[in-house]
Write a structure and sequence with these properties.
single chain, alpha+beta, 3-stranded antiparallel sheet, 31% helix
Length: 74
């Protein structure tokens, strides 16, 4: 069975928004709206973003970059 299930509709929409817009602007908006933090899943060998994460958690194939919340109006 070579078929793969599609991600749920919310995840599909998020991926479309993330690829269309400027990542730095989207990250800033998310950090202002977040209650605690924003977590971004990246390929392990993927490039770093302009904004450095507060910390990262590395697995075998992926890296989770964690950004703290920032004060301000979204």
């Amino acid at each position: 069975s070579g078929k793969k299930a599609l991600p749920d509709k919310q995840m599909q929409l998020l991926r479309q928004v993330a690829h269309v817009g400027d990542f730095s602007s989207l990250l800033e908006l998310c950090r202002r709206r977040a209650l605690l933090r924003v977590v971004v899943k990246q390929p392990l060998k993927g490039g770093r973003t302009v904004v450095s994460p507060d910390y990262s958690i590395k697995g075998k194939r992926v890296r989770y970059d964690i950004y703290g919340r920032v004060e301000g109006n979204g």
